[in-house]
Amino acid sequence: MGSVGAGASDAVHDPSACPGECERPIAYSLDPQFNADEQLLIEQAMGVWEQGTGGRVCFAPGGRDLVIEKLDRSDELQPWDPEWPRHVALTKGGRIWIVATRVDDPGEYRALVVHELGHRLGIGHIEDTATTYMHSTINDTPQELWKHALLPERDARAFCDVHRCTCAY
Description:
The chain has helices at 36-52, 106-120, 143-147, 153-163; strands at residues 26-30, 59-61, 66-71, 89-92, 95-99. The two termini are 22 Å apart. It is globular and about 45 Å long. The longest helix has 17 residues, at 36-52. The chain has a five-stranded mixed sheet with strand order 2-1-3-5-4, covered by helices on one side. By secondary structure, the chain is an alpha/beta fold. The protein has a single domain (23-153), classed as Collagenase (Catalytic Domain).
């Protein structure tokens, strides 16, 4: 999967407890149909995970570990998702599909990408707190996260639970 930080210490549940290290960047490619503003929002969403995990996640352009594609209509999700009419994005394996025409607000768009990247990193939906990008619907993501692109503690802990974070010292 790439990007899981290793170290010599015991596992930690909070990435802010100690610095991490990115072992291998997730090499990504973006669909050329994304405009410059959308590309910037996608890169900002990647930065949310890079910073919020204490450096344990890192992304690098120019690869196929992660392919992010832009779709014009929800029905284009149908081959991969039987519940396609409800979705504005989908993550399966190393692919993320975004139905760009269904998201208008830049902060919402970035929040949607942060959410989908969370799935790519192995994190499921989180419903035990209001402050998370990982709710099952984008409408439940707090507006505060749309405005300030910071990874909530709950999402960072979910990452460490999945990846067994350790300190890089």
